[in-house]
Design goal:
Blueprint lengths: L2 H13 L5 H13 L1 H102 L3 H8 L4 E8 H4 L10 E2 L10 E4 L2 E2 L13 E6 L2 E7 L4 H13 L3 H36 L1
Antiparallel strand pairs: 1-3, 1-6, 2-5, 3-4, 5-6
Helix pairs in contact: 1-2, 1-3, 2-3, 3-4, 3-6, 3-7
The structure holds zinc ion (ZN).
């Protein structure tokens, strides 16, 4: 075997850099003297380089989708961070609204209790008036007027026939615009019999009437007590329900839960994507 044959066999390994020092020297020495082998060597080297470029291109092409994925992953992570803050914010708002729900519920319970007390008191005044009137006649009102003078200003009794058709269906205490006092059988104020003309209050929830056994009792609240009556009236007609009080907290709770689950879902996806690209 001449040197050309040996060098041709060695050339692929030489190009790949896999030859020993000794073989390298042998190949280089021969290439510097033999033009035929040198030509073969250059051709092989050329083919090798083209092959390398091809491999690099494939590597770049394979890398590109991962770079895109990495980009998506980064913006996803930003979104996940935002959701995390949104969840925290929603939970804080929810806690505040739950606190408010408790306070408002207690407030409503207090208002309802107050309203019941006012209504019970109205009934007590009416019952006392009817009872005393039945036993002692007109002067029976004097005691009621005295007993409740820190609550009421005037208390009067009417014959139902004298105020028809103004009065009807007052089988329990009812707020009305006052019946005209000049038609009353008797009027008391703080235990005193009133015989002068009275200008009735124009405040239509400050006067209560009730009818029993052909008579009507009417009393007008004392001015200083009107705010209590007003409060009871507001509770009765304009109070929200307990459910309505809790709606803001419920909405905050739903938003918190949705935000939290979305956050968990995205965090989970992030983990999977990270595993895929690392
Ligand atoms: Zn040669």
């Amino acid at each position: 075997m001449n040197n050309c044959e040996i060098v041709k066999d060695l050339l692929p390994m030489y190009i790949d850099g896999l030859c020993s020092e000794t073989s390298n020297k042998l190949v280089e020495q021969h290439l510097s003297t033999c033009t035929q082998c040198k030509q073969i060597y250059e051709q092989m080297l050329n083919e090798f380089e083209v092959e390398q470029i091809g491999l690099n291109t494939i590597a770049i092409q394979q890398k590109q989708p991962f770079e895109k994925l990495n980009h998506i992953f980064k913006s996803y992570r930003g979104f996940s961070k935002m959701l995390e803050w949104l969840t925290v914010l929603a939970v804080v708002i929810m806690i505040i609204l739950i606190g408010k729900g408790f306070i408002d519920t207690q407030g409503l319970a207090a208002n309802i209790k107050h309203q019941e007390n006012i209504e019970q008191e109205q009934l007590n005044i009416m019952n006392a008036a009817f009872e005393n009137f039945a036993t002692d006649g007109a002067s029976g009102l004097e005691k009621v007027s005295t007993d409740y003078q820190n609550r009421i200003k005037y208390i009067a009794v009417f014959n139902i026939a004298d105020v028809e058709p103004l009065a009807k269906d007052y089988d329990k205490p009812k707020a009305i615009y006052p019946l005209p006092y000049e038609r009353a059988k008797v009027i008391y104020e703080s235990g005193q019999l009133i015989t002068d003309n009275i200008t009735p209050s124009d405040y239509d929830i400050g006067t209560m009437v009730m009818e029993k056994d052909g008579y009507i009792v009417q009393f007008e609240y004392a001015r200083h007590y009107l705010h209590e009556v007003e409060r009871a009236f507001q509770t009765k007609h304009y109070s929200p329900t307990t459910l309505q009080l809790w709606i803001p907290a419920l909405i905050a709770m739903i938003v918190s839960l949705c935000s939290f689950f979305l956050y968990r879902k995205i965090k989970d996806t992030n983990r999977k994507v990270q595993k895929l690209i690392s």
